[in-house]
Amino acid sequence: MRTEIDRKTKYIKLAAMIALIGNMILASMKITAGIFSQSNALVGAGIDSSTDVLISIITLVVVKILSKPADANHPWGHRKAETIATAFLSFIIFFAGAQLIINSITGLIAGVDTPLPPTIAIVVLIISVTGKSLLAVSQYILGKRADSAMIKANAKNMASDVLISVGVLVGFAIAHLTGSGQADSIMAILIGLWIIKTAIGIFSDANLELMDGNSDMESYKIIVDSVKAVEGAYSLHRARMRRIGGFWDISFDINVDPKCSVSDAHLIASNVEKEIKKRLENVLDIMIHVEPLGDDSVEGFGLSESEISKKE
User: Fold this and answer.
1) If 0-12 CB within 10 Å is exposed, 13-18 middle and 19+ buried, where does residue 93 land?
2) Which of 91, 178, 187, 224 has its Cβ near the most Cβ atoms within 10 Å?
3) The pTM is what?
4) What would the pLDDT profile of 83-120 be if each residue is shown by its tens digit?
5) Eight-class DSSP state of 303
């Protein structure tokens, strides 16, 4: 398990370093060109890339936390740090979008007419679209290899950045066609709304994990099928699955023949555990409680086999 965690940590660190360097270059280019061309939309796109620089720095800090082994105060390890960081990053992205909207609306109300963008601004945006596309692909690949919610969220964020840059280009085109710089502020508002939408989506996913929720019924079905595959194991119930930094923490009850010995019951539970690990990747821990067949006590939490079937 330690080797697997080290492998994931290596990919997360690599993804953070690539994102840090790439976004520093793109953010500097866009903010400089945006100030030079007096384009709110381009400056906003640069600010968004600047938040990606901050995200990369935070990710590198989180990597150090993730690499720490479990201790007396953190018996499940430190993997939740990744989820907490992901939620925190969503707030950074949200406020960056909100600030862009506020500044753009203020400019519209004041009647500020942004000058038409020069050629250099358009060139910078084309470079940005190319660079962000490459960064988004790299984050997606490394996030998938590390099974990291934080890196996958960053990949989504950078994919949004590509659309943002394309949106600014559209705003520039409208500005040139209409001869009005107001199109730049309007496009900046739309970009800000898109940034907020991305932030809400990222927070929603992180919050589900922080609340020990799991909407992936396919994973529960794997548990059901694993129990059915083991002779002597019956009636899966009180099933609970939660994510801890990309790993599964699983707990459930099964029934066994009340006449079987403790040793046999333990062997059945061990076989169920092995079956699950064959079918499901990234399992951190499995806790199986064995009960005698016929015990139909009311369950206060967790899912039964029938409830899982209904949710498929």
Assistant:
1) buried
2) 187
3) 0.65
4) 888 788 788 778 877 877 887 788 777 766 556 666 77
5) B
